[in-house]
Structure formats: C-alpha cells, structure tokens
Amino acid sequence: MLEAKTLTVGFSDSEDRLWLRLGTDSDGAVQLWLTRRVLQQLLPQVWELLGRTLTMPPNFLGQKHPGQGHELIGSGDDAEGVFRPSETDRRRQLWIEHELAMETSPPLDDELARERHPAAMQANPQSEGLLSRIHVSADVRSVRFQFDGPQRSLQFAGSRSDAHRVLRMIWQVQKNAAWHLLAPWEPEG
C-alpha cells in the first residue's frame, strides 16, 4: 500500500465528481474520483468516528461535578465518582476540536507541505479511476484514511486536526460544486 504524504481535492465539471489527488514521495501522485453518493455517506461517518474516539478533557466546560445529563457508570460501590459525559457534551467538544483545528492548523496543501514533499506536490497525477472503497480508522491521537482504487490502495495518515482539515476541505469543494451536502459539524435542525 502506498503512503500518501499530501492530499488535495478538486471538482471536475465534466465528470460531475470530486477528485482526490494523493501525492507520494516515491511514486508521484495518484488521482481518484469520488462521487456525490459516496461523499454523502463518508462525511457523517467520519464525523461519527471522530466523536466516538474523542477523549473528553477532565472538568469539561469547567464543571467540577457532573451536571445534568451525565451518566453514572457501573453500579453500587464501583460506580461512585465515575461519570460519562452526555452526548450533548461530546458533540460540543467535537465541534470545539473541529473549530480549533480550522483556526490553528495550516491547510494541507500549504507552502510547508510543498517544501516537505516537493515530489508529491509537483508530480502529474496518474488517474486511477473511481474510488471503490474508503476505510477510515481513528484513535485519540490520529486518523488513517485508506483509499482503495481499482488498481491499488493509498493511505493518508495524520493527526485528528489533519482529519478535520480533510473533512472541511472536501466539504468546501462539494459546496463550491453545489452538491448541497450538509456539514456534519453544523447543528441539526
């Protein structure tokens, strides 16, 4: 499996598809096509995964004692003092993590990426065809995207901030393409 060092996204009017350009240091760049249908499933699924793997900080929002909506874990004497944050608190913390990533992290295709991985950023991409599968895994520190094309797989790994930037970058391109998909980080309703 090839390890991608850079990831950029664009839109093709003629194909009515997004393209993902994954750059490697050794094998140049690969371009894969992403349909609206696949993206419609991908955005909320990655957002959910980030939420499930989020570590809540102690005393979230300055609460010294769990407030309304916190669930006691366990039973009897074992349960004393161990609380699980509410789903609302978890969604709020995920949104904060997302916004901080947008404010404090450089774009994935900035000058630093061009300096670190010049071969990956400057190579003419080889078209691999339509994405057949995207597998995403995450933990409290990192996220891995595996993009499977018809001929080979590429992996792009990074921090949770990188994952938020990937989501926002893909969402922004689809927005400019007028695909009208909802941003998973926007409140419902």
Range of strand content:
25-35%
Give the SSE string: EEEEHEEHHHEEEEH
Gyration radius from CA atoms, angstroms: 19 Å
Q: Helix share of residues? A: 25-40%
Largest sheet entry = 4 strands, mixed
Let me know the average pLDDT: 80
Strand adjacency order, main sheet:
1-10-9-8
Q: What's the shape?
A: globular
Number of E-state strands:
10
| SS-derived structural category | alpha+beta
Number of helical regions = 5
Q: What is the straight-line distance between the termini?
A: 41 Å
Low-confidence stretches: 64-70
Furnish the topology, listing elements before pairings.
Elements (H helix, E strand, L loop, with lengths): L1 E3 L1 E7 L4 E7 L5 E6 L1 H17 L18 E2 L10 E2 L2 H18 L6 H6 L1 H5 L2 E6 L2 E6 L3 E7 L4 E7 H17 L13
Parallel strand pairs: 1-10, 4-7
Antiparallel strand pairs: 2-3, 3-4, 5-6, 8-9, 9-10
Helix pairs in contact: 1-5, 2-5
How would you summarize what this structure contains?
The protein contains five helices and ten strands; from the N terminus they run ββββαββαααββββα. It is of the alpha+beta class.
Structure overview:
The chain has 189 residues and is of the alpha+beta class. Helix content is 33%, strand content 28%. The strands form three sheets. The chain has a four-stranded mixed sheet with strand order 1-10-9-8. The termini are far apart.
Properties at a glance:
189 residues, alpha+beta, four-stranded mixed sheet, 33% helix, globular
